[in-house]
Design a protein that fits this description.
Elements (H helix, E strand, L loop, with lengths): L3 E4 L3 E6 L16 H8 L25 E7 L2 H12 L4 E9 L6 E5 L2 E6 L2 E6 L9 E10 L2 E8 L6 H8 L13 H7 L10 E9 L5 E5 L4 H10 L2
Parallel strand pairs: 3-10
Antiparallel strand pairs: 1-2, 2-3, 4-9, 4-10, 5-8, 6-7, 8-9, 10-11
Length: about 230
């Protein structure tokens, strides 16, 4: 189940598939990324700040988001990597396909986010700064299609659902997002595009390794997203 891009004594770089939960929120969820990691390397269960539910997990991706993650294999690596995420030194870039035509070639969304629980689903909402946490998302247009824009997105912070909430707030929800969605747009497109996941993929990850050397990894779009791109390009 693990798609390992690189492994050394300190960390793993993996390509997480869409549909895989990173870690359980209770002890009930099974077949999570954590389960597969411990099966692959049992020593990982001794790494982290929550060894019961999130061993080895330095950061996370939403269940339906695919792409690159770094997994710590030792406590020293975990602490070193965690600090880089905290200090915003890690490069995290994504591909996203959004509804509509974004006019600007580049943009920055600097809007604080906070939790808003509705109908038993967790959503992030733009709040005033004193009620929420700073969230900064940069985007660049890579290609424009009829009804869609293909973006490269870079996040300076790592808030829950940050990219999804920010792009939805500016009127450009991500194709396939089941939480931040525009049902009217979905109805128009569902006959042409059949995608059972969100079009959001973590394609680039960069950080300093334990020898303080900058390392960077890339992973292209998975096949189902490439197929979607070819369909909308017709």
């Amino acid at each position: 189940m693990l798609d390992i891009i690189l492994e050394n004594k300190n960390f793993l770089i993996i390509n997480k598939p869409s549909g895989l939960i990173v870690h359980p929120t209770t002890f009930k969820e099974k077949n999570t990324l954590v389960d597969f990691l411990i099966e692959y390397d049992p020593d990982i269960k001794n790494v982290g700040d929550d060894k019961e539910l999130r061993p080895g997990i330095v950061h996370r991706l939403d269940k339906d988001v695919s792409g690159l993650m770094v997994i710590a294999k030792t406590q020293k690596a975990f602490d070193y990597l965690k600090e880089q995420f905290k200090e915003r030194k890690v490069k995290k870039e994504y591909y996203a396909l959004v509804y509509g035509d974004i006019k600007e070639e580049k943009g920055i969304i600097d809007l604080a986010l906070g939790f808003s629980k509705r109908k038993s689903k967790i959503k992030m909402t733009v709040f005033s700064q004193n009620k929420s946490k700073t969230a900064i998302t940069e985007y660049e247009v890579l290609k424009r299609f009829l009804n869609f824009t293909f973006l490269k997105v870079r996040i300076k912070t790592g808030r829950t659902h940050q990219i999804r909430a920010h792009l939805n707030f500016i009127g450009h929800p991500i194709l396939g997002d089941k939480i931040y969605r525009n049902k009217g747009l979905e109805r128009k497109m569902k006959k042409k595009i059949k995608l059972d996941r969100i079009f959001l993929h973590s394609f680039k990850l960069g950080f300093f390794d334990l020898e303080n050397k900058w390392v960077e990894f890339e992973k292209d779009l998975p096949e189902e997203l490439k197929k979607t791109m070819s369909i909308i390009n017709l």
